Amino acid sequence: MRGLGALFLAVWMALAFAQPAHPQAYPTRPVSLMVAYPAGGSTDVGARILATLAEKDLGQPIVVLNKAGAGGQVGWSELARQKPDGYYIGFINLPAISAVVLDPDRKATFQMDSFTPIINQVLDPGVIYVKPDSPFKSLKDIVEEARKRPGEVRAGTTGIFSDDHLAIVMLEEAAKVKFRIVHFDGDSPQLTALLGGQIEVSFLNVGGITPRVKSGQVKPLVVMDRERSKFYPEVPTTVEAGYPSFISSSTRGIVGPKGLPDPVVKKLEGLFKKAMDNPEHLEKMEKAGLAVKVMLAQEYGQYIRDLHERMKKLMAEALKAR
Predict the structure, then answer these.
(1) How many other C-beta atoms can be found within 10 angstroms of the C-beta atom of residue 72?
(2) SS3 string of 160-209?
(3) Are residues 115 and 130 in the same domain?
(4) Is residue 140 a part of any domain in this protein?
(5) What is the mean pLDDT of the chain?
(6) Residue 158 resides in a domain
(7) Per-residue pLDDT at 17 exceeds 50
(8) What is the reported pTM?
(9) What CATH code is carried by the domain that includes residue 271?
(10) Which among 185, 33, 202 has a CA at the least distance from the CA of 96?
(11) Tens digits of residue pLDDT in 105-139
(12) 167: domain range?
């Protein structure tokens, strides 16, 4: 019996010491903040603005890690398999992550419930961009050219079944046209291709592209929303252009792996909320063209679930067209 008692005590002590540090002591080392797209893209820009401010109150560095590949799947797969202790968290992009889960060919190793919602930072409407010297001056021009040359007008996305890809699918359905869809891993490679003439139109978002618009590198033709963007007040919406169902946006929020303890979630939620409300954060996000839309953990979790349900029908249509 003494042997069993000693064994029990040893197992109990091992389990006790294996538990995460008390939430009040968290964190005791740097926190990794993963971005599933290349450096320089709009998600990365927002993450770095936020991390710089939040780490001042956290008391530890927040290190932004870029884990790009497969339209975000590489980074999200890595995030899902991390230990839920608050030291490795990351951004997910909706609806892109839903598309990965819903595409059977992607063979995702995670599901939507593989993550613990913490807070949303950005809601970013979609935009169609062209080069300043492009012959396309409006959405009508693009649609008419696509009708003349079915499957030939080259349209760029940030990855297969990203919000940009699904926006093209929506436009094809609404206007009864076909594009030649070209996929890239993130904003920057796609813009490079647009400026280099490898694609004719670029489906992206408002966020992160505003500085290039101000410098005259690219030109926004239409915003995929019901209301005009405060960043592009002169640019018409898709509703104004006659396509009321052609609405698209991307949200970027922070999650942890499944099982992240509630006290850690609350600490991170409060930390990032304070940083997002900071006038410096709002000013820098404004300059970057990133529209801040704060959703705390509970609201953000419901948003993720609701959007995933809506995505099921859209993805079913997109998969048929593949």
Answers:
(1) 27
(2) CCCHHHHHHHHHHHHHCCCCEEEECCCHHHHHHHHHCCCCCEEEEECCCC
(3) no
(4) yes
(5) 91
(6) yes
(7) no
(8) 0.79
(9) 3.40.190.150
(10) 185
(11) 999 999 999 999 999 999 999 999 999 999 999 99
(12) 125-224
